[in-house]
Amino acid sequence: MTEHAPEHSHWLRYLVVWIVLLALTGLSYLAAQFDIGTVGIAIGLLIATVKATIVALYFMHLIEEQALFAVVGIATLVTVALLCAGLAADVGMR
Amino acid sequence: MTTTWERMHVADQPRRTVDEQFDSLETQVHSGRFAMWMFLGSETLLFGALIGVYVAYRILYGHDFVEALHHNDQLLGTLNTIVLITSSFTAAMAVDAVRGDRPKRVVWFLLATLFLAGCFLIIKSYEYMHHFQEGIYPGLQYSNEELDSRGARLFFTLYFFMTGLHALHVIGGMVVIAVIALVHRNRPYTNEYYMPLELTVLYWHMVDVVWIFLWPLFYLLK
User: Fold this and answer.
1) pLDDT confidence of A13, banded at 50, 70, 90?
2) Per-residue pLDDT averaged across B162-190, rounded?
């Protein structure tokens, strides 16, 4: 980050990412129009996770960073997933 | 040792002096970015815990909970998602512009981000007003007769709390972005040092990611 020479713009990369995110948003919306129960929920959350990953990798430059940075993100997501799975299992069996 | 005022206003002073515990400015900036990621992780856990509550209530109250979901306007929610994703794009372009030493573009992209954030809040406010008109309030004020079950009430309490908390994050982000834009106009950030701008934009992306999850939970997953 202390390179003194200005970089050329990566605008096309960001534009493509934006379009991909919009496309996934449309896909998510479309999938939600069909009544497919639990599978629908899994698909919705899966698409959301993919979108979040793309935002993190490209908009937030995670792909350029050391792997250590990804550890923070992955650890967080795993924690939330475990929390939700644990709650679902607990509450679901009452 | 230069003062902050000097660094902000005097052109030939370095933008940022290295604090003594760091070997170089690069290490300092890298450290700052990592700290920001950890903060974003903590914010994600905050919303993650609330998502846990959502999961529990959805299972506990089943049909009643999901029935209330149908009441949210899917189109407005989707529009808001598009607005925030686009604001993430313009924020990323602002950082791209500073890396390329194009200071004027930085301001335009930050303004675009602010504008889109404002649109998000306007759409959200409209949704809230519409709910209020139908007697749907968080907590005790709830007075809608059609969706009167406990599950429905809990759904809306969660909806107001989580989207409200998210909206507060949007407002906070807008304030910081505005301040950064003003600081940049006074003395432009360059590719040499732009950490405050970078960290602000990282925060903004997190706000977008949170909504990316809130959207299916409250609008789509019927």
Assistant:
1) very high
2) 95
Tokens describing residue B201 = 């934009």
Interface of A with B in 10-39 (CB under 8 A): 10-11, 14-15, 17-18, 21-22, 25, 28-29, 31-32, 35
Contact A6 B190 (CB under 8 A): yes
Model ipTM over 0.95 = no
Taking the CA of residue A12 and the nearest CA in chain B, the distance in Å comes to: 10
Whether residue B170 is predicted with pLDDT greater than 90 in this model: the reply is yes
Q: What is the pTM of this model?
A: 0.92
b/e map B172-197, b = 16+ CB within 10 Å: ebbebbeebbeebeeebbbbbbbbbb
